[in-house]
Amino acid sequence: MEPIIKCENITHYYGKRLIYENLNFTVAKGKILGLLGKNGTGKTTIINILNGYLKPYSGSCYLLGEDMRTLSPATKSRIGLLLEGHVQHSYFNIVQIEKFYSRFFPNWKSEPYWELMNRLKVTRTQKLSTMSCGQRSQVALGLILAQDPELLILDDFSMGLDPGYRRLFVDYLREYVAASDKTVFLTSHIIQDMEQLIDEAIILDFGKILLHSSTQAIMDQFRRFRFNCPQGSTINATSELYHPEVINGQAELYSFLPQQQVEEEIKMQGFSPTNMREETLSLEDAFIGLTGKY
Q1: Of 147, 148, 146, 126, nearest in space to 136 by CA
Q2: Mode of pairing for the β-strands spanning 223-228 and 208-214
Q3: Model's pTM, two decimal places?
Q4: How far apart (Å, rounded) are the C-alpha atoms in residues 193 and 169?
């Protein structure tokens, strides 16, 4: 089956600064994929490239089988885009804006919009300009879902939302996608939300993809190891040992390897660890383990 999103050899610069080099990834139909990365690694740049707002230095991206540089109006109508939770025409109330948007989308389905509005408990005469940031973001999501798109692209969807609205957003989106076999490509700086939502993660480092894996595999296999080591010891990072740190004889590092193999890797560096503890991780802790704290 052809992937919903396919990017091949994407290279991009801002001036002389390299953002990516030969970036390759695909997103399969029905998946919710989260793009994770530190500030400045190019998450929003990928969103802009996918939507044709930004032309990469080289390489190609395909959405629903079409080159993003020449998307037809018919294909664009199958894509729902949310940029940082914004919605235009804030002088409308929720009835007026739903009526306005419905005229532009032939497959408009008002039920998801009104179900979400009912959960918000806002009056039908309330203007968007008087709503909180969280409420406006929910309106934006409702309008996108009512378009009945095959692909949803959501950039920093949780920005400005308090914990209650973030949970509403995540829960409703997860229910909607599960019931309709949609595909979602999203970014967020709040990784706790992603853990509850995404099937797969792409973790960006500066200039490259560090990891593309199922969320479950990351949670099941990636571990933090803490142990004692001789004073003055240092541990070198390797392809198997991520971001080792030693402070006053207390060491920690991250790895996909089982504990016995981690111990063997450390012994190859000249000493034997003692009192080693293996710890399971949240997705946020795994992200820090893969990319580093700073």
Answers
A1: 126
A2: unpaired
A3: 0.89
A4: 9
